[in-house]
Design a protein that fits this description.
Length: about 80
């Protein structure tokens, strides 16, 4: 499993509270303001987003209960 697949899986395994926190954080600090939203993603970004979506919905993707467990699996 690639690092990208592992990262997507860890995100999918977050608790509801952590997901709410991350969404709030992104809205406040990472997403463009309304006046800055007139932009197009580069084709490689769109491709990566689609790949992440497919990986996140793959039932065969390994799930981890902690970040430490994922690191162990990657022999880091």
């Amino acid at each position: 499993m690639s690092i990208q697949e592992q990262a997507v899986q860890m995100i999918n395994d977050l608790s509801d509270e952590n997901v709410i926190f991350l969404i709030d954080f992104m809205k406040r600090f990472m997403l463009p303001k309304e006046e800055d939203k007139n932009f197009d993603f580069r084709p490689d970004v769109i491709e990566a987003m689609e790949e992440a979506r497919l990986i996140s919905r793959n039932q065969e993707t390994r799930k981890y209960s902690s970040f430490a467990e994922a690191l162990e699996d990657m022999d880091i």
